[in-house]
Amino acid sequence: MKTLYLIRHAKSSWAFDLSDHDRPLGKRGRRDVIKMGQHLVSNQAKPETYISSTASRAFYTALHFCDQLGVDEGRIKLEKSLYHAGANEILAITKSSPNCERLALFGHNPGFTNAANAFANLNFDNIPTCGVVGINFDVKYWKDIAFGEGQLAFFYFPKEI
User: How many domains does the chain fold into?
Assistant: First the structure.
């Protein structure tokens, strides 16, 4: 059994004149990511592998989650292709991931919502900022996953917690 954690970046700040890629987390985003990390550690097993988009808001979401989970930040792998990746790219990244039981990806919408829907035949309108979707796959290796074969394990988001 494999569990994929799709974690959308926390709320970003628009207060700075920066490119989209370089926008940092905003005040609400910093607050939400701590709350969501604490909720995740209390309710789910820790991921073993962490892969983040190179965008600042996704990477800092990953850093804050790792802090809450007690995981060394050096375990975060940066993946440029996760920046605004679509469902097919997210599938390819997941399929090529190191073999572990629980994999966390940190990235963006609309790709994460579309991927969650495709993986588990869901009908989510939107994964909110700092939302976490867990999808189980009954496979031995990540390379064997496919769209439509996952099962929703959990869905958490800040306004619910």
Answer: 1
